[in-house]
Amino acid sequence: MTLLQLHNVTKTFGEIRALNGIDFSITEGEIVGLVGPNGAGKTTLFNLLSGRFRPSSGRIIFAGTEITGLKPHAICRLGISRTFQSSRPFAKMTALDNVIVGCVFGKGFYLRPRREDKCTALEILGMVGISHKAETLAGDFTLSELRRLDLARALATRPRLLLLDEVAAGFSPVAVKQAVKLVLRVRDRGVTMLIIDHFLNLSLKVSDRLIALDFGEKIAEGPPGEIMKNRKVIKAYLGLRHEEEHE
Would the pTM of this model clear 0.85, i.e. be above it? Predict the structure, then answer.
């Protein structure tokens, strides 16, 4: 089943065209990597999908419903959640309470925590490997723990599509291996994922497909092995000189 479709999506900021005519779709159950150099438009695309920005033109369809221009809370309740490149927890709240907030304000919104939300939050903290930190203030977490908490909060909203923004940025090789296992566990729970990964340390290991952007345009799409041999992708990442040296 096709879960997400973008049709000719464009976003401009004044005279700057951050995204230009983006078309792609994601099938339910896929892990898709969104790759490209700095300034390619990756985060802008996430901001459009999550409702932070409204497209200048084009359409976004999620699970058969047009979500173009909807507010972030409405999109979240339909089943799209995200993390951010910079962690944004409630620093003076415990990890458990941070995740309970996701339970309350996510899909199936209600005003007060339910009795079962604590159990759900503890289960999610266990899945991401930080259940032992449930009563620790988020402001006392390490970088790796914050990334896991970000993921836990996003999962608590009960998403069908999860947007992961640089979830393994700054990780050691050991931590990256743990992140790979964690992402695959999340997919086993029935969650489809779109992942921004500038340095490719996670995307190449977990993605079924890569979509490459450069200067706001889609330049390639396909299996990871194929995309990493694509001349346009090599040029975007490594520059014209590298391409000429290998001709």
Answer: yes
